[in-house]
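Posting for a labmate who doesn't have an account.
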Amino acid sequence: MQWEPKRRFGSRVRGHVRSPLDCKRRVAAGFWSPDRRRYAFRKMDKKEEEIVFVKELFKKLGIKTEPSNSECPDFIFKHNKVKVGIEVTRIFKNRKIEGRPLHALESERDSIVKIAMQSYTELEKFPALDVAVFFGSYPKLTKAQRYDLAKKLKDLIIQNLPGKDSTVRVNNNFEDLENFPEYFDSIRISNFSFLTKNYWQVPVAGFVQKNFIQELQDIINVKNTKLDSYKEKCEECWLLVVADSNFPSSFFDPDIETKNYKYKCNFEKAFCMWDWYGDYFEIQNQTMHNKSIK
């Protein structure tokens, strides 16, 4: 297995780091204005993100048909007079922390910060802030703690509001764990006059996995078992596997071996798209079932 270090500290209102496809998703859904770089606090839901993935794939394949929403598979469209379904799924690294998948822990941290930000925003009497929350690596997080930790995070930020056009960093000295839980290592709070909306984030860094044949085959195996139910709604069914690069658990950049490997895939066509570069490859099939796009 090959790995490549990648630092991804999330996004900031200025000088932020975003993958090309992630920017397209946000612009398409109306959550980001590229001219002013303003962010809304509402996240895109799963379906909104999936349709952008599919449209990006269609653009690269030269398919001009507009997909329509469906369930199992996710979208239906007409291609060469054939009714085709396309199922979208994400791929994550197999790494676990204390028995939980890494992506589940990342999602939990992100949810805590988003809930705290929304609660703060609804107060309407405080300035818009750019906040970075640095979590500790040791304490175990559970879903049951989500709202309590979000409230304490919001309170910590209110208690440490910086003056206009200034930044403060609040470090946890672990002497008051009731009010400053051990889950938070430190919080960076910036109050810039040009901000019109709150933007709170969980800075992250991780490694890019180059060879992920096993992870990709595992995802395909799961979807293969559901193919018969998908094809009740369509004549053909395609699979799109996405590494969205939102967190380290989805940092992938396929090497030649991963691209050229012949997978056990029962779909008529299958593709893998990795978000860091907004690129894709067609998944090769052991049975030579896949045909090139026409």
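Reply:
Got it, the structure tokens are right above this. The longest strand covers residues 82-90.
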